[in-house]
Write a structure and sequence with these properties.
Elements: E1 2-10, E2 13-18, E3 21-27, H1 31-40, E4 45-50, H2 51-54, H3 62-72, E5 75-79, H4 85-93, E6 98-101, H5 103-107, H6 109-119, E7 124-131, E8 134-137, E9 142-146, H7 147-157, E10 161-166, H8 178-187, E11 192-195, H9 201-210, E12 214-217, H10 219-223, H11 228-235
Parallel strand pairs: 1-4, 1-12, 4-5, 5-6, 6-7, 7-10, 10-11, 11-12
Antiparallel strand pairs: 1-2, 2-3, 7-8, 8-9
Helix pairs in contact: 1-3, 4-6, 9-11
Pfam family, one: His_biosynth
Catalytic activity: 1-(5-phospho-beta-D-ribosyl)-5-[(5-phospho-beta-D-ribosylamino)methylideneamino]imidazole-4-carboxamide = 5-[(5-phospho-1-deoxy-D-ribulos-1-ylimino)methylamino]-1-(5-phospho-beta-D-ribosyl)imidazole-4-carboxamide
GO cellular component, one term: cytoplasm
Length: 236
Amino acid sequence: MKVFPAVDILGGRCVQLVQGKKDCRTEYGAPLDCAKRWIDEGADRLHIVNLDGAFGSAGSNAELIRELVRETGAYVQLGGGIRSVEDASGWLDTGVDRVILGTLATEHPEAVTEVSDLFGKERVVAGVDARGGQVVVKGWENSAGDYIEWAKRFEEAGAGALLFTNVDVEGLQKGIDPVPVERLVKATSLPVIVAGGISSPEDVVKIKKIGADGIVLGSALYSGRISLGAAMEVSK
Protein backbone atom coordinates (compact mmCIF):
# COMPACT_ATOMS: atom_id res chain seq x y z
CA MET A 1 0.00 0.00 0.00
CA LYS A 2 1.34 3.41 -0.98
CA VAL A 3 2.04 6.13 1.59
CA PHE A 4 1.74 9.81 0.67
CA PRO A 5 2.95 12.41 3.19
CA ALA A 6 0.91 15.57 2.74
CA VAL A 7 2.44 18.95 1.98
CA ASP A 8 -0.45 21.42 2.21
CA ILE A 9 0.46 24.96 1.19
CA LEU A 10 -1.30 28.13 2.37
CA GLY A 11 0.21 31.57 1.94
CA GLY A 12 3.50 30.02 0.92
CA ARG A 13 3.80 27.99 4.13
CA CYS A 14 3.32 24.32 4.90
CA VAL A 15 0.26 24.01 7.14
CA GLN A 16 -2.24 21.54 8.47
CA LEU A 17 -5.87 22.55 8.91
CA VAL A 18 -8.54 21.10 11.18
CA GLN A 19 -11.73 20.23 9.28
CA GLY A 20 -10.51 22.32 6.33
CA LYS A 21 -10.87 25.64 8.20
CA LYS A 22 -8.34 28.36 7.44
CA ASP A 23 -8.59 29.80 10.93
CA CYS A 24 -7.77 26.41 12.50
CA ARG A 25 -4.29 25.91 11.11
CA THR A 26 -0.84 25.06 12.37
CA GLU A 27 2.23 26.15 10.41
CA TYR A 28 5.20 23.84 9.93
CA GLY A 29 7.62 25.97 7.93
CA ALA A 30 8.74 26.09 4.32
CA PRO A 31 7.01 23.55 2.05
CA LEU A 32 10.28 22.43 0.47
CA ASP A 33 11.86 21.81 3.88
CA CYS A 34 8.88 19.69 4.93
CA ALA A 35 8.91 17.77 1.66
CA LYS A 36 12.64 17.06 1.95
CA ARG A 37 12.14 15.86 5.51
CA TRP A 38 9.69 13.19 4.38
CA ILE A 39 11.91 12.20 1.46
CA ASP A 40 14.86 11.88 3.85
CA GLU A 41 12.71 9.63 6.06
CA GLY A 42 12.02 7.28 3.17
CA ALA A 43 9.05 8.67 1.27
CA ASP A 44 9.09 8.47 -2.51
CA ARG A 45 5.67 10.10 -2.99
CA LEU A 46 4.10 13.39 -1.98
CA HIS A 47 0.51 14.57 -1.75
CA ILE A 48 0.58 18.32 -2.41
CA VAL A 49 -2.47 20.52 -1.88
CA ASN A 50 -2.56 24.14 -3.01
CA LEU A 51 -4.91 25.37 -0.29
CA ASP A 52 -4.87 28.92 -1.64
CA GLY A 53 -6.12 27.45 -4.90
CA ALA A 54 -8.82 25.50 -3.10
CA PHE A 55 -9.95 28.74 -1.46
CA GLY A 56 -10.16 30.55 -4.78
CA SER A 57 -6.69 31.79 -5.73
CA ALA A 58 -5.76 29.28 -8.43
CA GLY A 59 -2.42 30.84 -9.37
CA SER A 60 -1.07 30.97 -5.84
CA ASN A 61 1.99 28.90 -4.92
CA ALA A 62 2.60 27.84 -8.52
CA GLU A 63 6.34 28.46 -8.43
CA LEU A 64 6.63 26.83 -5.01
CA ILE A 65 4.94 23.70 -6.32
CA ARG A 66 7.13 23.59 -9.41
CA GLU A 67 10.16 23.88 -7.12
CA LEU A 68 8.91 20.95 -5.02
CA VAL A 69 8.56 18.83 -8.14
CA ARG A 70 12.05 19.77 -9.37
CA GLU A 71 13.93 19.54 -6.09
CA THR A 72 12.47 16.37 -4.57
CA GLY A 73 12.25 14.07 -7.59
CA ALA A 74 9.31 12.41 -5.85
CA TYR A 75 6.13 11.10 -7.41
CA VAL A 76 3.70 13.99 -6.91
CA GLN A 77 -0.06 14.04 -6.87
CA LEU A 78 -1.51 17.55 -6.71
CA GLY A 79 -4.89 18.95 -5.77
CA GLY A 80 -6.40 22.29 -4.91
CA GLY A 81 -7.62 25.00 -7.24
CA ILE A 82 -7.69 22.91 -10.41
CA ARG A 83 -10.78 24.46 -11.94
CA SER A 84 -10.44 23.58 -15.62
CA VAL A 85 -8.99 21.08 -18.08
CA GLU A 86 -6.42 23.75 -18.91
CA ASP A 87 -5.34 23.99 -15.26
CA ALA A 88 -4.96 20.21 -15.07
CA SER A 89 -3.06 20.07 -18.35
CA GLY A 90 -0.71 22.82 -17.26
CA TRP A 91 0.29 20.95 -14.11
CA LEU A 92 0.68 17.62 -15.89
CA ASP A 93 2.82 19.26 -18.56
CA THR A 94 5.13 20.78 -15.95
CA GLY A 95 6.02 17.57 -14.11
CA VAL A 96 3.20 16.71 -11.72
CA ASP A 97 2.57 12.97 -12.01
CA ARG A 98 -1.16 13.09 -11.48
CA VAL A 99 -3.81 15.65 -10.64
CA ILE A 100 -6.70 15.40 -8.19
CA LEU A 101 -9.94 16.78 -9.58
CA GLY A 102 -12.44 17.64 -6.86
CA THR A 103 -15.03 20.36 -7.40
CA LEU A 104 -14.27 20.33 -11.14
CA ALA A 105 -15.01 16.61 -11.37
CA THR A 106 -18.32 17.02 -9.59
CA GLU A 107 -19.49 20.08 -11.51
CA HIS A 108 -18.14 18.91 -14.86
CA PRO A 109 -17.57 15.12 -14.94
CA GLU A 110 -16.74 15.43 -18.62
CA ALA A 111 -13.51 17.16 -17.55
CA VAL A 112 -12.37 13.87 -16.00
CA THR A 113 -12.93 12.19 -19.36
CA GLU A 114 -11.10 14.91 -21.25
CA VAL A 115 -8.01 14.91 -19.03
CA SER A 116 -8.00 11.10 -19.02
CA ASP A 117 -8.16 11.01 -22.81
CA LEU A 118 -5.37 13.56 -23.12
CA PHE A 119 -2.91 12.17 -20.59
CA GLY A 120 -4.06 8.66 -19.66
CA LYS A 121 -6.33 7.63 -16.82
CA GLU A 122 -3.40 6.77 -14.57
CA ARG A 123 -2.74 10.52 -14.27
CA VAL A 124 -6.26 11.44 -13.11
CA VAL A 125 -7.55 11.08 -9.56
CA ALA A 126 -11.13 12.03 -8.76
CA GLY A 127 -11.61 13.48 -5.31
CA VAL A 128 -14.40 11.99 -3.22
CA ASP A 129 -14.63 14.27 -0.19
CA ALA A 130 -17.53 13.12 1.96
CA ARG A 131 -19.32 14.25 5.08
CA GLY A 132 -22.05 11.99 6.39
CA GLY A 133 -21.96 9.98 3.18
CA GLN A 134 -22.49 13.04 0.98
CA VAL A 135 -19.89 14.48 -1.36
CA VAL A 136 -18.96 18.03 -0.36
CA VAL A 137 -17.38 20.58 -2.69
CA LYS A 138 -16.18 24.21 -2.78
CA GLY A 139 -14.13 24.08 0.39
CA TRP A 140 -16.44 21.42 1.84
CA GLU A 141 -19.27 23.93 2.03
CA ASN A 142 -21.81 22.47 -0.43
CA SER A 143 -23.29 18.96 -0.58
CA ALA A 144 -23.54 17.29 -3.98
CA GLY A 145 -25.02 13.81 -3.42
CA ASP A 146 -24.17 10.27 -2.35
CA TYR A 147 -20.45 9.53 -2.34
CA ILE A 148 -20.82 5.99 -3.68
CA GLU A 149 -22.86 7.17 -6.66
CA TRP A 150 -20.29 9.85 -7.41
CA ALA A 151 -17.46 7.33 -7.20
CA LYS A 152 -19.20 5.17 -9.78
CA ARG A 153 -19.72 8.20 -12.06
CA PHE A 154 -16.05 9.10 -11.80
CA GLU A 155 -15.06 5.55 -12.69
CA GLU A 156 -17.31 5.63 -15.75
CA ALA A 157 -15.91 9.05 -16.71
CA GLY A 158 -12.37 7.69 -16.90
CA ALA A 159 -10.70 8.43 -13.57
CA GLY A 160 -7.74 6.19 -12.83
CA ALA A 161 -8.06 6.35 -9.05
CA LEU A 162 -10.16 7.84 -6.27
CA LEU A 163 -9.03 9.94 -3.32
CA PHE A 164 -11.50 9.43 -0.48
CA THR A 165 -11.36 12.02 2.28
CA ASN A 166 -13.67 11.42 5.22
CA VAL A 167 -14.37 15.00 6.27
CA ASP A 168 -16.11 13.80 9.44
CA VAL A 169 -12.77 12.75 10.95
CA GLU A 170 -10.28 14.77 8.89
CA GLY A 171 -7.71 16.67 10.94
CA LEU A 172 -9.06 15.50 14.31
CA GLN A 173 -6.31 12.90 14.94
CA LYS A 174 -8.81 10.57 16.60
CA GLY A 175 -8.61 7.62 14.22
CA ILE A 176 -10.43 6.50 11.11
CA ASP A 177 -13.98 5.37 10.52
CA PRO A 178 -13.47 2.16 8.51
CA VAL A 179 -17.10 1.72 7.45
CA PRO A 180 -17.29 4.32 4.64
CA VAL A 181 -13.84 3.25 3.42
CA GLU A 182 -14.95 -0.36 3.16
CA ARG A 183 -18.17 0.60 1.37
CA LEU A 184 -16.24 2.59 -1.22
CA VAL A 185 -13.56 -0.04 -1.84
CA LYS A 186 -16.27 -2.65 -2.40
CA ALA A 187 -18.27 -0.38 -4.70
CA THR A 188 -15.52 0.37 -7.24
CA SER A 189 -12.77 -1.44 -9.09
CA LEU A 190 -10.57 1.69 -9.00
CA PRO A 191 -7.63 2.06 -6.63
CA VAL A 192 -8.73 4.04 -3.58
CA ILE A 193 -6.41 6.36 -1.64
CA VAL A 194 -7.68 7.16 1.84
CA ALA A 195 -7.26 10.42 3.78
CA GLY A 196 -8.76 11.67 7.01
CA GLY A 197 -8.24 10.58 10.59
CA ILE A 198 -5.24 8.27 10.12
CA SER A 199 -3.51 8.60 13.49
CA SER A 200 -1.78 5.30 14.32
CA PRO A 201 -0.18 2.23 12.77
CA GLU A 202 -3.38 0.38 13.70
CA ASP A 203 -5.37 2.72 11.43
CA VAL A 204 -2.94 1.97 8.60
CA VAL A 205 -3.36 -1.78 9.13
CA LYS A 206 -7.15 -1.46 9.06
CA ILE A 207 -7.07 0.44 5.78
CA LYS A 208 -4.65 -2.06 4.26
CA LYS A 209 -6.89 -4.98 5.25
CA ILE A 210 -9.88 -3.26 3.66
CA GLY A 211 -7.95 -3.22 0.38
CA ALA A 212 -7.16 0.43 -0.21
CA ASP A 213 -4.35 1.28 -2.61
CA GLY A 214 -2.83 4.08 -0.55
CA ILE A 215 -3.08 6.52 2.33
CA VAL A 216 -2.41 10.22 2.85
CA LEU A 217 -0.80 11.21 6.15
CA GLY A 218 -1.38 14.76 7.34
CA SER A 219 -2.06 16.21 10.78
CA ALA A 220 -1.07 13.16 12.80
CA LEU A 221 2.21 12.88 10.89
CA TYR A 222 3.13 16.50 11.52
CA SER A 223 2.13 16.41 15.18
CA GLY A 224 4.13 13.23 15.78
CA ARG A 225 1.18 10.99 16.66
CA ILE A 226 2.32 8.64 13.90
CA SER A 227 5.76 8.35 12.35
CA LEU A 228 6.34 7.99 8.64
CA GLY A 229 8.60 5.01 9.26
CA ALA A 230 5.97 3.15 11.27
CA ALA A 231 3.31 3.85 8.69
CA MET A 232 5.51 2.68 5.84
CA GLU A 233 6.52 -0.47 7.72
CA VAL A 234 2.98 -1.69 8.39
CA SER A 235 1.83 -0.68 4.91
CA LYS A 236 4.21 -3.15 3.23
